[in-house]
């Protein structure tokens, strides 16, 4: 049976969650808030992976699993595939989504060009941090999926230019 | 008839095991299921022998015994489904579809946000749906 | 065709090697035979296999047979192609000749004749007997051989070779081998080709009625045999496989009822490895092959080839599946076979396979995983035979000795009963044996499990034997269908198999002769059902008839033999599984071994094995199975007196799922633990009860403590014990989150604690901790002599309800100790001065800084010159915090509030030896303490003349109170502070003579400057004059109508007295009373919150009506005017432009001698010199010149001098100028002008001008 959730609901939920954890529960310790959000994502991914890997042969290696995430999983969750996958064949994978759905409505107020280069400028870094808060959830999801597929890993995301977003997966040897 | 179905977690820990015999001798079925893990491990660990069925979830007949048949099914998430039947001639296609339904039921169960992964499945709905699936499959 | 079978068989056995025929033309064979024989087998023969690929066969044996030999003669040609494999593969023509003519005329034609038959593969061996020394002979031999070659060899094939018997040439033998090989290869090819064509023809007409399997079989097997003879085992094996395939198809072909076989003696012993076990003729009857024998025969041939190919692994793997499928076949025909034929056959088959393969298998020759696979198969074979063997044992009544473990139950209860058409019935003369069995049955008491665990024993039988046996007996007689049906209910009635349609439900009873299982079952009465013992005995007899193998019979003859065999099989299975992938199987079987060891009281062995089993189950969380084994382990440990192990087993049992044991059993576990704990433990190792006792901090925020405070830490402890359990001690370690390296120190709970099942809250007394935050560490404790520890931190719930993401969370700190900080503040309530020498309230504000002062004690220690009026209580009241310097307003509010605010925040405390104990209400609010004190000072205040400004020193009225506050739970917190209080007189008095009336009356103005922050009301004032002064007309009091005179805080008032000089008094007469005393009777209206106030007692009696007035005394000095001046000092007027701040001016005084001092008493040695001194208020003036010095003044009357001093005014306004005094001259003799102190006006500085700043002198 297919159950669909209105995308707007998901967006709102995500926003609320971030607001809740980084704004109220752990207002003064963002790293803790990040941890919790990531953990929630982990559980979601863990459970989604059960459903979306049904009806498909087992993956013989890491690359297959990653490809599954890029193609099927991503289009299940975001109705589009990852646009670009890179790997160093030593356990590091970079998944790039040129228009990451959950960032499509996020915008950072433009700051002078010269500032954009160096992240140390307060305004820039604050904006970046605010956005990155929204990325712990998808990171957690990816980690959840992979660990449920038996691939322990660490996932981080970076946003070079919105709404492009790339997730970096480092498989734990 | 199917006498026992089981779900075994990726650490070979029992997540759900249900026998369908009148007598309270479930232990022996526990034993059968537990030992059949040996076969699954063997098949998965040296793919050479399991050959073509390497990546298919359905592992087929695990035991060629005289008395009962044990079938196995291994998901991508290293969760194992095991089914013990006393029917003599069983068509693989039936078993496949059985496992597919079983798997679906399992996925629904673990998608419950209140289910803690790696813990025993206690959902009553899951139990009922499994019961129905089992009842709907009496091979031959 | 079938009649050839016998012949075929014999021929096959007779010849086993490739045959080469020798055509001995010139009787050479006897001489060369030896040489030939010793040069076979052929070292390296290149043959082509069935798929036309060259194969290298090594050491191919060849048999040389003379063509004249009987074996090669006398063959009917039509047989040939049947038995072609025995026909020669090569024909060697042996010739010799030394004379060319002889060769041409005689030998050559013969040879031509011989070799013309092209069927055969032939070549010529030319033997030369010529001795090398005899070169004549050799020469001719050479010629002849050359001719021979010319005649018989063609360019495409070389058919000649030459053997020099005396010659050294060795390469002949290679030549020979090549030639023979070539011949064999060609022949082989031709024959294989032929056979294949034949076979193809046959298999094309497979499904025609005329088709005959026998022909097919003979062709196939001949082909196989050819391959085998040529050592092409692979191909031979393939032939047999195809043969088997084809056979099974024909067998399974419906229609013709074929005989199965298996009724011959010793058929119960599997012959699946003995090809020659039965002659084929016996297997085949009117061209139908008996399945029972033939399939075994085929397998035997296959396994023989496999062994030759050195593939024992394949033998066992094929063997296992063969056994399984063959057993199925046996099941189909079970009803006609002897009783338990199938079981017996399977046992023997497995054992045979095991023996054969084990002897042929050598580790390491194959890939390791193949090895593992092999051992797994061995294990399978062992356990299969084990199962069957157990079944037999059960049937004859050894069931009581079979452990009812899940394993055995699984195999036995899912294995259907044997289904003979007729169940064996009791032989007539068996009554004694029956009695025996009866006894054993009665004796057999099922061992009660340890801890009195009650379990329904697992079944070892698919359905009740009694019923099955009787029903099958009765099934001959018509009727009792209901029993038939109720037998079909439920799975473990074995209906799973009965339901399968293949079971021939309508098998007619076979003739008695065949089923020797039930001799004379007609004699036995049908109506009476057999008793169990009878069934056992009957089965035993039947088995004796079935089993031909004496060893097997022996193993079943007695319980002991049965057990040894059972143990062997189990061990075999276990060992082999251990060497394979299937560890679990191995371990579980170890458990079975353990059970037997246990029965034979080899408890240490049993314990070891049980350990392994438990570890297996526990490791993967199969609690149900664990619950089955663990009690056994525990029992072993108990018997072995391994207390530590036993304990931990009990704890493990307790920590299993609650549902697995009844509460009674769990209580038994606990009581065991407690008993041992209180008994003598030789070496008490700490017991880990993490699974059983878990702990967590209470929900809610962590306990907050200030630095140095002790506290009470209450912790939730979950007990998994079924009953209350008494812990003789319980302690808990706290670990500082900052530094985890140190273990943190342990908190001991005070007394023995009793843990209820489930949640307990335990409070620990917490000594002062270092600042930082702490988490729970380990709980350790003692039950009797048993030390236990638990490091399982349960998150506020039972141990099992943990979050799978728990590693994501930091463990919640349970205790936070804050850094040292101010907890309380003590301050003086009033900054303004209080009345000295009067009982006054001194206020102390106690301000707790969010810290409770419950039961605090204040030590009050007054400094010198201050004493506490302990006649009055000390008042304490709530202090209204208001913004800083609104002293007055504070006063009002507090004054008003104190009455109407609830009484509990104002009360009177008693001071007991310098200590005050705070009361409850004051613990949190900030409060003010009013302490009645009296500052003492003896000295009388003196009024100052207005000439010299008043200088009161601050320290004069300063008094200190040392305060020490002890507070905190155990008065561990100390706060010390010394507060200063300022005391003073009500007034500061200054006097001046306001006016000099004629008649010598002086108006003395007394100015009162209030020093307190309170209204002073002067009721009365009088003056006690010093000598030389008398009051004016009045009584020395000012006009009373002015009184009462109110002096408000800080303001001044003046009282005027009229006094006059005492005429009568002569100068020079000395004065008694040096100074006069000003008395002021006044009362004070003040508020203690602001400063000075009514003395305490007056304050006590609040009524104003009878007021007790205070009296203030102050001394003043009056000075008589100058009567007969001899010197006069005149202050010369200042320059007209006046004085300016910072501007130098010269002050001048003129000193004039009015009369000479002759005769006057006040004279000293230098009459013409006068000492002067200028004194000025250093705050107002800076004096530049000499302040003190001598000026010369001649003695005669009227001599004068001017003293001028340079000085700078420092402040603007009306100030007193500097004064010139003559210290050496009595004041009475100096008249000054102006007479009293006067003021001059100093203008402020010009803006531009800079000026000096005052310097302290």
Automatic annotation (TrEMBL), chain A:
InterPro entries: NO_sig/Golgi_transp_ligand-bd, TRAPP_component, TRAPPC6/Trs33
Database matches in SUPFAM superfamilies: Ligand-binding domain in the NO signalling and Golgi transport
Gene3D superfamilies tied to this protein: Trafficking protein particle complex subunit 3 (3.30.1380.20)
GO cellular component: cis-Golgi network; trans-Golgi network; TRAPP complex
Biological process, per Gene Ontology: endoplasmic reticulum to Golgi vesicle-mediated transport
One protein family per Pfam: TRAPP
The family this protein is said to belong to: Belongs to the TRAPP small subunits family. BET3 subfamily.
Protein name as catalogued: Trafficking protein particle complex subunit 6B
Naturally occurring in which organism (per UniProt): Microthlaspi erraticum
From TrEMBL, chain B:
Stored InterPro entries: Longin-like_dom_sf, Sedlin, TRAPPC2L
One annotated Gene Ontology cellular component of this protein: cytoplasm
GO terms (BP aspect): endoplasmic reticulum to Golgi vesicle-mediated transport
Database matches in Pfam families: Sedlin_N
Domain of life: Eukaryota
Family affiliation: Belongs to the TRAPP small subunits family. Sedlin subfamily.
Name listed for the protein in its UniProt record: Trafficking protein particle complex subunit 2-like protein
UniProtKB/TrEMBL annotation, chain C:
Gene Ontology CC annotations of this record: cytosol; TRAPPII protein complex
Domain TRAPPC10/Trs130 N-terminal: 18-315
Transport keyword on record: yes
Primary localization class, coarse: Golgi
Protein keywords: Golgi apparatus, Transport
Alphabetical GO biological process terms: early endosome to Golgi transport; intra-Golgi vesicle-mediated transport
Signal peptide: none
Residue span of region Disordered: 478-525, 883-906
Pfam families: TRAPPC10 (PF12584), TRAPPC10_1st (PF23036)
Localization: Golgi apparatus
Stretches assigned to the TRAPPC10/Trs130 C-terminal domain: 1138-1225
UniProt protein name: Trafficking protein particle complex subunit 11 domain-containing protein
Organism lineage string: Eukaryota, Viridiplantae, Streptophyta, Embryophyta, Tracheophyta
């Amino acid at each position: 049976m297919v159950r669909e959730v209105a995308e707007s609901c998901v967006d709102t939920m995500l926003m609320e969650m971030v607001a809740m954890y980084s704004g109220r529960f752990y207002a003064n310790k963002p790293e803790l808030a990040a941890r919790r959000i990531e953990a929630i994502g982990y559980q979601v991914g863990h459970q989604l992976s059960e459903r979306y890997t049904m009806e498909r042969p087992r993956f013989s290696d890491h690359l297959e699993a990653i490809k599954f995430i890029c193609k099927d999983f991503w289009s299940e969750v975001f109705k589009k595939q990852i646009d670009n996958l890179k790997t160093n064949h030593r356990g590091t994978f970079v998944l790039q989504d040129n228009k990451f759905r959950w960032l499509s409505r996020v915008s950072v107020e433009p700051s002078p060009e010269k500032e954009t280069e160096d992240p140390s400028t307060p305004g820039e870094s604050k904006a970046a941090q605010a956005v990155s808060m929204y990325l712990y959830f998808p990171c957690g999801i990816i980690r959840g999926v992979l660990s449920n597929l038996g691939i322990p890993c660490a996932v981080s995301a970076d946003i070079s230019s919105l709404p492009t977003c790339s997730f970096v997966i480092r498989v734990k040897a | 008839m199917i006498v026992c179905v089981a779900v075994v977690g990726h650490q070979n820990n029992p997540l759900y095991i249900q026998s369908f015999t009148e007598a309270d001798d479930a232990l022996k079925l526990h034993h059968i299921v537990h030992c059949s893990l040996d076969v699954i491990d063997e098949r998965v660990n040296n793919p050479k022998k399991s050959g073509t069925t390497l990546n298919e979830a359905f592992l087929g007949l695990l035991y060629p015994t005289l008395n009962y048949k044990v079938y196995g099914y291994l998901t991508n998430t290293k969760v194992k489904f095991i089914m013990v039947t006393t029917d003599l001639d069983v068509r693989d296609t039936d078993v496949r579809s059985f496992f597919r339904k079983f798997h679906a039921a399992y996925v629904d169960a673990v998608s419950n946000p209140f289910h803690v992964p790696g813990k025993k499945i206690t959902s009553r709905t899951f139990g009922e749906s499994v019961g129905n699936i089992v009842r709907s499959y009496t091979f031959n | 065709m079938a009649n050839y079978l016998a012949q075929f068989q014999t021929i096959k056995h007779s010849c086993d090697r490739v045959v080469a025929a020798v055509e001995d033309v010139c009787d050479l064979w006897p001489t060369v035979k030896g040489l030939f024989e010793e040069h076979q087998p052929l070292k390296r023969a290149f043959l082509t296999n069935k798929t036309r690929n060259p194969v290298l066969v090594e050491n191919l044996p060849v048999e040389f047979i003379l063509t004249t030999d009987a074996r090669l003669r006398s063959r009917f040609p039509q047989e040939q192609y049947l038995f072609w494999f025995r026909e020669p593969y090569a024909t060697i023509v042996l010739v010799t000749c030394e004379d060319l003519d002889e060769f041409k005329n005689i030998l050559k034609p013969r040879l031509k004749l011989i070799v013309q038959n092209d069927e055969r593969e032939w070549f010529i061996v030319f033997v030369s007997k010529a001795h090398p020394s005899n070169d004549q002979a050799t020469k001719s031999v050479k010629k002849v051989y050359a001719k021979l070659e010319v005649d018989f060899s063609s360019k495409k094939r070389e058919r000649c070779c030459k053997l020099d018997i005396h010659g050294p040439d060795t390469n002949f033998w290679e030549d020979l081998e090549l030639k023979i090989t070539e011949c064999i290869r060609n022949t082989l090819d031709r024959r294989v080709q032929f056979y294949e064509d034949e076979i193809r023809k046959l298999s094309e007409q497979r499904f025609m009625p005329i088709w005959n399997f026998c022909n097919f079989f003979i062709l196939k097997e001949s082909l196989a045999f050819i391959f085998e003879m040529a050592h092409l085992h692979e191909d031979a094996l393939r032939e047999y496989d195809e043969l088997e395939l084809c056979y099974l198809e024909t067998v399974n072909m419906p229609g013709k009822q074929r005989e199965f076989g298996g009724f011959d003696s010793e058929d119960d012993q599997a012959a699946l490895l003995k090809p020659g076990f039965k002659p084929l003729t016996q297997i085949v009857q009117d061209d139908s092959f008996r399945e029972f024998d033939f399939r075994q025969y085929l397998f035997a041939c296959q396994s023989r080839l496999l062994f030759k190919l050195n593939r024992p692994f394949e033998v066992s793997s094929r063997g296992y599946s063969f056994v399984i499928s063959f057993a199925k076949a046996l099941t189909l025909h079970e009803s006609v076979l002897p009783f338990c034929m199938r079981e017996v056959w399977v046992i023997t088959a497995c054992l045979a396979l095991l023996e054969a393969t084990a002897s042929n298998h050598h580790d390491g020759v194959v890939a390791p995983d193949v090895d593992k696979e092999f051992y797994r198969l061995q294990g399978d074979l062992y356990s299969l035979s084990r199962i069957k063997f157990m079944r037999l044992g059960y049937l004859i009544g050894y069931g009581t000795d079979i452990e009812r473990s899940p394993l055995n139950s699984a195999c036995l209860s899912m294995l259907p009963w044997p289904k003979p058409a007729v169940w064996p019935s009791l032989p007539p003369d068996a009554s004694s044996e029956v009695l025996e069995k009866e006894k054993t049955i009665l004796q057999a008491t099922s061992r009660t499990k340890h801890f009195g665990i009650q379990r329904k024993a697992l079944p070892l039988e698919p359905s009740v034997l009694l019923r099955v046996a009787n029903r099958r007996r009765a099934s001959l007689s018509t009727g009792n269908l209901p029993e038939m049906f109720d037998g079909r209910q439920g799975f473990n009635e074995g209906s799973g198999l009965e339901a399968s349609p293949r079971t021939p439900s309508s098998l007619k009873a076979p003739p008695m002769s065949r089923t020797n299982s039930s001799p004379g079952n007609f004699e036995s009465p049908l109506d009476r059902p057999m008793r169990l013992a009878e069934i056992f005995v009957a089965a035993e007899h039947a088995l004796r008839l079935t089993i031909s193998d004496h060893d097997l019979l022996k193993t079943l003859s007695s319980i002991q033999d049965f057990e040894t065999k059972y143990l062997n099989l189990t061990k075999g299975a276990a060992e082999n599984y251990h060497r394979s992938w299937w560890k679990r199987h191995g371990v579980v079987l170890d458990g079975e071994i353990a059970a037997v060891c246990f029965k034979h009281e080899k408890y240490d062995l049993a314990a070891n094995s049980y350990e392994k089993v438990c570890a297996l189950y526990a490791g993967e969380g199969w609690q149900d199975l664990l619950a089955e084994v663990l009690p056994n382990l525990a029992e072993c440990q108990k018997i072995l007196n391994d207390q530590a192990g036993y304990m931990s087993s009990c704890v493990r049992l307790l920590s299993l799922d609650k549902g697995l044991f009844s509460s009674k059993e769990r209580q038994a576990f606990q009581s065991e633990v407690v008993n041992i704990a209180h008994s003598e433990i030789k070496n008490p190792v700490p017991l880990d009860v993490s699974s059983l006792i878990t702990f967590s901090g209470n929900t809610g925020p962590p306990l907050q403590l200030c630095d140095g405070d002790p506290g009470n830490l209450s912790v939730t402890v979950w007990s998994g014990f079924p009953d209350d359990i008494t812990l003789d001690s319980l302690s808990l370690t706290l670990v500082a989150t900052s530094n985890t390296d140190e273990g943190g120190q342990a908190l001991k709970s005070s007394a023995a604690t009793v843990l209820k099942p489930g949640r307990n809250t335990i409070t620990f007394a917490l000594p002062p901790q270092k600042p930082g935050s702490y988490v729970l560490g380990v709980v350790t404790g003692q039950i009797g002599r048993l030390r236990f520890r638990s490091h399982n931190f349960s998150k506020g719930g039972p141990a099992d309800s943990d979050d799978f993401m728990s590693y994501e969370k930091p463990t919640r700190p349970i205790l936070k100790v804050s850094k040292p900080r101010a907890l309380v503040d003590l301050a003086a309530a009033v900054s303004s001065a209080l009345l000295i020498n009067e009982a006054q309230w001194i206020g102390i504000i106690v301000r707790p800084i969010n810290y409770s002062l419950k039961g605090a004690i204040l030590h009050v220690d007054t400094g010198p010159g201050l004493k506490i009026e302990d006649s009055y209580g000390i008042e304490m009241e709530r202090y209204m915090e208001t913004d800083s310097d609104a002293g007055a307003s504070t006063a009002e509010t507090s004054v008003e509030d104190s009455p109407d605010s609830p009484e509990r925040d104002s009360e009177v405390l008693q001071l007991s030896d310098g200590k005050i104990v705070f009361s409850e209400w004051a613990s949190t609010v900030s409060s003010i303490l009013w302490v009645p004190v009296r500052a003492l000072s003896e000295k009388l205040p003196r009024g100052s003349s207005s000439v010299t400004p008043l200088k009161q020193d601050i320290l004069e009225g300063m008094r200190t109170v040392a305060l020490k506050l002890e507070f905190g739970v155990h008065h561990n917190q100390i706060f010390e502070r010394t507060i200063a209080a300022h005391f003073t007189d009500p007034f500061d008095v200054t006097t001046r003579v306001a006016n000099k009336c004629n008649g010598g009356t002086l108006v003395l103005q007394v100015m009162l400057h209030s020093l307190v922050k309170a209204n002073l009301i002067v009721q009365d004032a009088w003056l006690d004059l010093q000598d030389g002064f008398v009051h004016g007309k009045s009584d020395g009091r000012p006009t009373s109508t002015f009184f009462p005179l109110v002096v408000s805080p800080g303001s001044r008032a003046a009282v005027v007295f009229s006094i006059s000089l005492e005429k009568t008094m002569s100068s020079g007469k000395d004065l008694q009373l040096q100074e006069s005393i000003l008395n002021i009777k006044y009362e004070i209206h003040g508020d203690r919150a602001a400063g000075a106030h009514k003395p305490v007692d007056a304050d006590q009696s609040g009524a104003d009506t009878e007021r007790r007035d205070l009296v203030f005394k102050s001394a003043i000095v009056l000075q008589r005017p100058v009567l007969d001046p001899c010197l006069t000092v005149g202050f010369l007027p200042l320059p007209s432009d006046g004085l300016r701040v910072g501007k130098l001016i010269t002050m001048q005084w003129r000193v004039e001698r009015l009369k000479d001092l002759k005769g006057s008493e006040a004279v000293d040695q230098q009459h013409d010199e006068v000492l002067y001194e200028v004194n000025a208020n250093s705050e107002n003036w800076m004096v530049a010149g000499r302040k003190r010095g001598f000026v010369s003044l001649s003695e005669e009357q009227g001599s004068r001098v001017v003293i001028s001093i340079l000085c700078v005014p420092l402040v603007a306004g009306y100030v007193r100028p500097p004064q010139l005094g003559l210290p050496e001259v009595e004041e009475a003799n100096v008249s000054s002008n102006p007479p009293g102190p006067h003021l001059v006006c100093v203008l402020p500085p010009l803006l531009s001008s800079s000026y000096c700043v005052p310097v302290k002198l």
